[in-house]
């Protein structure tokens, strides 16, 4: 019999991002912001250079004038197997769990910010202030996600609240999970399906199939971080895939 | 240098003849010290008991808040004889002593078996019965009827009794599923087997209601709900370990 602990840890969650499909529309950014109770990046916060975005769209130009083209790359926590942020945490508030996720335990965090300094992808954010929402937004906060107080590091969690709910509901109905059943907020919102979420332990899942594509690359390969987020390079109509940027 | 010698020489003199105010000060300081120690000790006892379990039920540290309507679980969920606050037997109109009506917990806490929250019944549930049941003299029932039978039946502002900190996610459903699963041949620790046996139906299923006591104590016999289990992380993780439930931090913290 599968124990409850085995049922949870039998997955290896990951994401595949098809850069060729990304139009840079920012729907994922908004979806993430609302799903995860991310503090608002107001003008004041922006001027302090302390804005939050668990997922952001990086924009690159390529080609020479007049044939300039834009390339959009969504960047979120890469959930590295070999994460530079983990060993530097003095209190084990961030660690790699059995499901292949790099998790952040807010109540364990003491706010040293070492992990933020260690992360080469710049996807960890520190709460310099107590988050405040205008009264009109209070009721849209997600009750399934802890509101991080001041002095705490936060980052993309692969929407762990949705994973927990999905796994639990499957167990409740006594059935196996179906690929695509669990969606993170960003993959749910993506209109072009550039973002795909799934289980790498399932050989037939969409992420597994995409991770065997020729266009597959991972970011900052040279650092050997072994991310659980894989990217598929953009196809240039004039010939060949455009390689990884450094 | 000279002043230094002087103080050295004067030292024994001050010891011999203390000024009067010093003599008064010593017992005051001594008593004050005892007082401060006592207060600190008292505060520490509070914090330590709060840390290990339930705080002492004094000075508003009570784990049993007074509810806006004195709702008795004894009358609804229990099936024992009922008594008034002063200890006298509670009688109905014909002078027979009332007993609880033994409703199932899930009659009111409807969502406990399929979602994370158990849910508190809406006032409409109460007034389906209390439109007629219960004396018109009863103070809590009069209050209930004004709230529930008016033009705009408002919610009752119940005070929350069991509440985990904001950084903890608790889900009822897997626990009820696990505790009622008689076919579970797996290690079952912390399960009240006698209660399970008593709650087993003829078709082999177990009533959800018998499992609540694992974490909530004997609610049936409480006139005012109190938290009797500490429900700290140690208790949760202990049971999870024994029963091979997930203990990864993101099970409960995210």
Q: Describe it for me?
A:
The complex is a heterodimer of chains A (246) and B (254). By secondary structure, chain A is of the alpha+beta class. Chain A has a single domain (4-242), classed as Alpha-Beta Plaits (2-Layer Sandwich), CATH 3.30.70. Chain A is built from seven helices and ten strands. Chain A has helices spanning 4-9, 27-35, 43-47, 114-118, 160-172, 185-189, 206-210, and strands spanning 13-18, 56-62, 69-75, 94-96, 102-104, 125-126, 153-154, 195-199, 216-217, 229-232. A four-stranded mixed sheet of chain A has the order 8-1-10-9. Chain A has a two-stranded antiparallel sheet with strand order 2-3. In chain A, strands 4-5 form a two-stranded antiparallel ribbon. The mean pLDDT of chain A is 90. Chain B has 254 residues and is an all-alpha fold. Chain B folds into three domains: 8-52; 70-120 and 160-254, no CATH class; 123-157, no CATH class. Helix content of chain B is 42%, strand content 0%. The termini of chain B are far apart. The mean pLDDT of chain B is 81. At the A-B interface, helix 1 and helix 5 of A face helix 7 and helix 11 of B.
